[in-house]
Amino acid sequence: MILRWFGRKKPEEQARKDETTAPLPEPVVQEPIVQEPPVPEPVAEEPPPVPEVVPEPELPPPPAVETPPPPPIAPPSEPEEREDTPEIVRDDLPVALTAEEEKPKKGWFARLKDGLSKSSSKLTEGISGIFTKRKLDDEALEELEELLITADLGPTTAAKVTAELARTRFGKEVSPEEVKATLAAEVAKIVGPVAKPLEIDAALKPHVILVVGVNGTGKTTTIGKLARQFRAEGKTVMLAAGDTFRAAAVSQLKIWGERTGCPVISRDTGADAAGLAFDALEEARRQGVDILLIDTAGRLQNKAGLMEELRKIVRVIKKVDESAPHTTLLTLDATTGQNAHNQVEVFRDMVNVSGLILTKLDGSARGGVLVSLAERFKLPVHAIGIGEGVYDLRPFDADQFAKSLMGLPSQ
Ligand SMILES: Nc1nc2c(ncn2[C@@H]2O[C@H](COP(=O)(O)OP(=O)(O)OP(=O)(O)O)[C@@H](O)[C@H]2O)c(=O)[nH]1
Ligand SMILES: [Mg+2]
């Protein structure tokens, strides 16, 4: 049976209420696996006994992790030595859970609109500038196309959307409101086909989700947010700290594990990531958990060794379950604009990316990139991140996104 996570249609307030009040089931916590020397062909281990723990009643805020923006993508043909990769110091992560998680007070649409306000104000101000008391002539269309390109909608989308406006309104006086409404409808048409809920196959124990992406794009944070949502739905979740490259990456995931009541399988820094993934999958199978979320290292795109590591993770987990990973999520940071296109190309060729999650749509003026990604790659967009909080990941809704992007009300 396929359960559609994100698929429920409810009034916003009710949905939020359900989510915040849903009791988390009793989790089991797995002691981290003690590091073993890297093994080329990993072998399953007997796990230690599993203690019962009571989950935190409330979710404290996520760790304040400072990550520099992802570097520009270099062609994969320029391998660098792994040893040369600069270590990002993130050892200042909080270790104690103190404050309560701030639950969102505003409805989802309001928060989406707030989040996209930088992108939408650029567009709406531009549109008002072009169309106030003006006929839709060639010059106005050219200016509009230019504006859409600078808002990261991409040249193809900009041309298509502008042509549609010209088809119906050319030579007529159009108001900024009419232009915005037409553009929102066109954007919704383009992104509609890719707005697909993340489907979890309940028959799989576990459904394996591999999370990949350039460093700093939000892989670990997205895993934490997803884990909370799955747990709130009563599913059992296990996390695998596949970013064995940095000690801080493991501790960051462990914090998310504590916060969401999910066991975290980890090894020490430098351990073989594929071996860890193998162990985690065996353990998840043994415990019969519903979902295994595997975190991976960033900086893969210009490091042949690390790229190979990602492929090896996939190869090795297939030895346990030929159909795994069942979902491969690519996280993309919306603030990187058109660079996200290169990232999709690189990761799509490397692993079989099954869907996208656009993060950091809040505070970015480049939210339009989602439209050009949809147009070009047609990959499902499962969810969008609009903040660092555990509640700031939501299913991608084409209509709401298009309206928010154009600064229009939801109705
Ligand atoms: N504003 C905002 N910040 C986000 C969002 N998602 C993640 N972040 C922040 O982005 C930073 C990087 O997120 P991580 O989850 O550590 O990214 P990562 O891909 O795991 O990074 P590496 O482990 O270095 O590869 C953190 O400070 C997060 O809090 C989002 O949707 N909005
Ligand atoms: Mg990470």
UniProtKB/TrEMBL annotation:
Residues 206-407 form the SRP54-type proteins GTP-binding domain. Keywords: Cell membrane, Cytoplasm, GTP-binding, Hydrolase, Membrane, Nucleotide-binding, Receptor. It catalyses: GTP + H2O = GDP + phosphate + H(+). InterPro entries: AAA+_ATPase, P-loop_NTPase, Signal_recog_particl_SRP54_hlx, SR_rcpt_FtsY, SRP/SRP_N, SRP54_GTPase_dom, SRP54_N_sf. Its EC number is 3.6.5.4. GTP binds at residues 213-220, 295-299, 359-362. Belongs to the GTP-binding SRP family. FtsY subfamily. NCBIfam families: ftsY. This is Signal recognition particle receptor FtsY. It comes from Azospirillum aestuarii.
